[in-house]
TrEMBL record:
Gene3D superfamilies: 3.30.70.270, HIV Type 1 Reverse Transcriptase, subunit A, domain 1 (3.10.10.10). GO terms for biological process: DNA biosynthetic process. Pfam families: RT_RNaseH_2, RVT_1. Residues 8-96 form the Reverse transcriptase domain. This is Retrovirus-related Pol polyprotein from transposon 297. Residues 129-210 form the Reverse transcriptase/retrotransposon-derived protein RNase H-like domain. PANTHER family: POL PROTEIN, RIBONUCLEASE H. It comes from the Eukaryota.
Amino acid sequence: MILVEAPGKDPRPCIDYRNLNKITKTKFFPLPNIEERIEIVSSAQYITVLDLSKGYWQIPLTERAQRLAAFVTNFGTYKPLRLPFGLKNAPYEFRLAGYYSRYIPMFSSIAAPLTDSLKGKARKGPITWTKECEEAFDELKNCLCNYPVLYSPDYQKPFIVETDASDQGMGVVLSQLADNETEEHPIIYLSKKFKSVEKRYSVSEKECAGHHLCSFKT
């Protein structure tokens, strides 16, 4: 085990679990589907949202797992009592999911400069922060602060599907009319960045791809 210094943070212990991970059977666990969760709470009056501080440390290890994950230091051999970083199945036991794309129309197109900067060689070296990256970052922050809150769906009312597309990607808004029959309430935003082949679609095909995305997701 070694300690890695992090600017402004406590040193982080790093343990080499590669040999243990080679003989560990992968444990797959499906993440909850957000659409199904929304359907369950659509008629609820109260909704509680919880988050965890230092999430991995909230998961205790069994006695056997503690023995297998033991590590050696200059001061002796120790067994972790909580889930450490580096174990093969740790992400399947605990994973935080970001839902920002569901709250911002055309999220994939707006964030394209940011996601492009993480491709190829940039993943192994410093990120080149361009003017386009800065503009995309600022626009995403503005969208998070200003776009309307999503509403729970009412399955007794008809749904409205609106699609849009650009050279970079497509977006879909699923909404319903409010009780006054004049105002539309957004239920969910969907978006997808186009692959190189999809960028050659015609305008009509790009718009239809949005409908297909909506039917697949909902």
